[in-house]
């Protein structure tokens, strides 16, 4: 696999950092432009999925192990809910961001930032986890692209 | 878009169906963009055309890529579908025209959000302030839904993926029962590889 598809591998190598950077941009610029935690999480996950499509799931699992994505999954919800609990501890209602900082805008900004970060973490974790589970279930040793060949024989079988 | 949808229904090759549904999502994203719903278009392009296509391909690799053809036409199902479709179309007749200023959606809380969001929350993107601040509870629920979905996938089919998980030893034991001899975890994978190449 390492010598196959050099074009794809080089292009992916160029694109993946840009995709990750774009995900972070969407995540932290969501207040000003379109986007937010959900979209950012998906784009972040896409970078890793692209990596495992081209370099194989096994290599991708070394880059970001399944246990890490599962932790991300739970950690995001924890950040979101935790923000709500913190606002309660600081004297406000659940998810009332005004109490987080001295000014209303500061508090809201911090609250929205934390909550969106939680959403992004959960979504990214969820997408990579689901992808790993699906691909891991089929065959752990093969890169994902080869799985399509597992499917095609049935098509040939139907033909004759 | 409609043409894509009809083509989707007629096709029997599931691989082509998945590719077409990705194209359909891309059309939908373009439609949302025309309607000035940039955030929704963004999500549709990323999730509908991107992730779900890959996940469906992953599912496909576990099953076959040809749909089973059912020749029999059930009259009851046809009547039910036609009736439901008719009721849905009848329901849209009462709906206000797209962009109508008097429509409930433009009269209810939307105006308040648009006017006061800059004061009360701050971010220039009102969508973000509605999602994360005004409707914080809803978004928490949505995040929990995503979490639950991933946990559900893990519980249902995630057992064999981790060698330290209890499910994987059970799966290995089942393979041992079938072959009447102990197998190492890698052997099963290699067997699949041989099966696929032959």
TrEMBL record, chain A:
Gene Ontology CC: plasma membrane
Keyword Transmembrane helix: yes
Membrane topology term: Multi-pass membrane protein
Keyword Manganese: no
NCBIfam families assigned: PRK12508.1
Protein name as it appears in the record: Cation:proton antiporter
Keyword vocabulary terms for this entry: Cell membrane, Membrane, Transmembrane, Transmembrane helix
UniProt-annotated location(s): Cell membrane
Similarity remark: Belongs to the CPA3 antiporters (TC 2.A.63) subunit B family.
Transmembrane residue ranges: 7-26, 38-60, 72-90, 110-134
Superkingdom of this protein's organism: Bacteria
Domain Na+/H+ antiporter MnhB subunit-related protein: 8-129
Automatic annotation (TrEMBL), chain B:
Domain of life: Bacteria
Name the record gives this protein: Cation:proton antiporter
Keywords, in A-Z order: Cell membrane, Membrane, Transmembrane, Transmembrane helix, Transport
Main location: membrane
GO cellular component entries: plasma membrane
Location of region: Disordered: 164-198
Membrane topology: Multi-pass membrane protein
UniProt source species: Magnetovibrio blakemorei
Compositionally biased region (Basic and acidic residues): 174-198
Record domain MrpA C-terminal/MbhE: where: 93-160
Residues that span the membrane, as ranges: 12-34, 40-61, 73-93, 139-158
């Amino acid at each position: 696999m390492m010598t196959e598809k050099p074009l794809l591998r080089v292009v992916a190598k160029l694109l993946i950092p840009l995709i990750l950077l774009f995900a972070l941009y969407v995540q932290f610029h969501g207040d000003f432009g379109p986007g937010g935690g959900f979209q950012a999480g998906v784009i972040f996950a896409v970078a890793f999925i692209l990596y495992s499509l081209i370099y194989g799931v096994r290599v991708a699992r070394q880059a970001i192990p399944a246990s890490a994505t599962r932790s991300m999954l739970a950690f995001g919800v924890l950040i979101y809910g935790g923000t709500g609990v913190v606002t309660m501890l600081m004297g406000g209602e659940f998810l009332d961001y005004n109490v987080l900082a001295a000014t209303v805008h500061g508090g809201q900004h911090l609250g929205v930032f934390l909550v969106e970060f939680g959403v992004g973490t959960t979504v990214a974790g969820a997408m990579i986890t689901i992808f790993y589970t699906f691909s891991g279930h089929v065959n752990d040793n093969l890169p994902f692209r080869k799985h399509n060949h597992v499917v095609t024989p049935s098509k040939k079988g139907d033909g004759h | 878009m409609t043409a894509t949808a009809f083509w989707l229904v007629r096709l029997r090759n599931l691989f082509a169906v998945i590719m077409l549904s990705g194209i359909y999502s891309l059309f939908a994203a373009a439609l949302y963009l025309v309607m000035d719903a940039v955030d929704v278009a963004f999500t549709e392009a990323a999730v509908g055309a991107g992730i779900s296509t890959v996940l469906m391909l992953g599912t496909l690799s576990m099953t076959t890529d040809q749909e089973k053809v059912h020749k029999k036409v059930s009259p009851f199902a046809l009547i039910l579908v036609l009736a439901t479709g008719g009721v849905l179309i009848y329901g849209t007749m009462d709906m206000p025209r797209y962009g109508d200023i008097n429509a409930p959606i433009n009269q209810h809380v939307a105006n308040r959000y648009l006017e006061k969001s800059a004061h009360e929350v701050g971010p220039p993107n009102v969508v973000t302030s509605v999602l994360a601040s005004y409707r914080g509870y809803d978004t928490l629920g949505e995040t929990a839904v995503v979490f639950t979905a991933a946990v559900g996938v893990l519980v249902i089919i995630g057992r064999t993926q981790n060698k330290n998980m209890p499910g994987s030893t059970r799966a290995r034991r089942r393979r041992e029962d079938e072959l009447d001899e102990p197998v190492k975890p890698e052997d099963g994978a290699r067997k699949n590889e041989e099966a696929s190449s032959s």
